[in-house]
Specification:
single chain; 401 residues; alpha/beta; 12 strands; 55% helix
């Protein structure tokens, strides 16, 4: 849209008569908005594009009205429009990462300009590199916790990657892509697509080099919902206030980190079909599986313990003790364990002892268990989803036996 705005305004001002008689700036803003809407439709109108288009529309209105274009009010209106049309977007990764990054960028640059209002005397290249690093720090720092919450992974080298990838994309790849779109009706798109591919190849080469650095991909345990909610509240408080009150958001963010670090991964995980069971003993994770290819489930479970290696359990008897848990394939005679896990229909041979059996698994779906000081805490898929009309019920215990 910036390219379209600059090009339209440049062309209209080539004629002195048009420049003096027409509102050139307003016409260029409307042309840029039309180009942005066309780009959003061309790329599938996914949520980050819609957020950008909504804010760009407000920027255009600001230009037409002679008001400030980029502000937190614009971001709030963009969020309101998206949530009114698609309220479920608030739990999605795109919404959380996109809006948190833009919120931090607007608030961060406003705070920076208030503190450093004088013109910088640094060379233009150094100032540009510093601005890119500052932008990457704000956007990445605000969105990384949401990436950790959604994907259980973090990439610590986002700043050096963005120092090359962002200007290369904005100044080389995107303009050539637009040029290719304009040249397609004439069969000349290759003149733009080939050099565009050179820029993409540089980014691919760069990401491959950075991905080879030590700890380029950090596997992290799942984040409790309380932690991400506290971080969100702290980030919003820190960014919305302009006075010293904004610092009150920092303790909330620190509390979210403390809750995250104090969270314990489960000692037992059972898949909803009972064909894959993970049991934790010390620092070792033992697997019991009857599935032919549990690769997908294992990939989902791997981040739970921060990428700890998984070991196949070897039980030579019908019941074996793994830490505080007794895994049983037959009615156990030992009732001294804290918890019994049995992927079979098990009679109540140990009254008062918590047990995860085939019946409870089929009734409640996937189950996670925490064992601490002899106390057992269970969390089931049914409890997480709730008894809502759109949730498919699990088979009853009468049919699972």
């Amino acid at each position: 849209m910036g390219l379209c705005f600059a090009a339209t305004r440049f062309l209209l001002t080539r004629s002195e008569r048009l420049a003096l008689r027409l509102p050139v700036k307003s016409i260029a803003a409307i042309a840029a908005l039309a180009a942005g809407a066309g780009y959003a439709a061309l790329t599938g109108a996914h949520l980050p594009i819609l957020r950008s288009l909504a804010m760009a529309s407000l920027v255009t209105l600001g230009v037409l009205a002679g008001r400030r274009a980029i502000s937190l009010r614009g971001l709030a209106l963009a969020a309101m429009l998206i949530l009114l049309t698609t309220p479920e977007a608030i739990i999605g990764t795109s919404f959380q990462m996109s809006f948190s990054a833009v919120l931090a960028l607007i608030a961060g640059y406003e705070a920076w300009q208030r503190r450093h209002s004088s013109q910088s005397r640094a060379p233009r290249l150094i100032s540009h590199i510093a601005a890119l690093a500052f932008t990457s720090l704000l956007a990445g720092g605000a969105s990384m916790p949401f990436a950790a919450f959604q994907f259980q992974q973090m990439q610590p080298y986002w700043i050096p990657a963005n120092l090359v990838a962002v200007p290369l994309t904005a100044l080389w790849i995107m303009p050539l892509g637009l040029a290719a779109l304009a040249l397609m009706p004439f069969g000349l798109a290759a003149f733009a697509l080939i050099p565009m591919g050179w820029g993409i190849a540089i980014i691919v080469w760069l990401t491959a080099r950075i991905a080879a650095w030590p700890a380029a991909m950090l596997r992290v345990p799942p984040m409790p919902p309380t932690a991400i909610l506290l971080f969100t509240a702290g980030l919003i408080w820190l960014c919305l206030w302009r006075t010293s009150w904004r610092r009150a958001g920092l303790p909330l963010m620190a509390a979210s980190l403390a809750i995250y670090l104090a969270a314990r991964p489960p000692d037992v995980l059972v898949s909803p079909d009972a064909k894959l069971i993970a049991l934790k003993s010390g620092n070792t994770i033992y697997l019991v599986t009857t599935a032919r290819n549990p690769a997908y489930t294992l990939a989902q479970w791997a981040p739970v313990w921060g990428g700890a290696p998984l070991t196949l359990a070897q039980c030579s008897t019908a019941a074996c003790r793994i830490g505080p848990v007794l895994f049983a394939l037959a009615p156990p005679s030992d009732c001294t364990a804290a918890l019994i896990v049995a992927p079979i229909a098990l009679p109540n041979t140990c009254p008062g002892l918590p047990a995860i059996t085939r019946a409870s698994i089929f009734t409640n779906g996937a189950i996670a268990a925490w064992v601490q000081n002899g106390r057992v805490t269970l969390r089931t898929d049914r409890a997480a989803q709730g008894n809502r009309p759109w949730v498919v019920p699990y088979p009853s215990t009468t049919t699972s036996n």
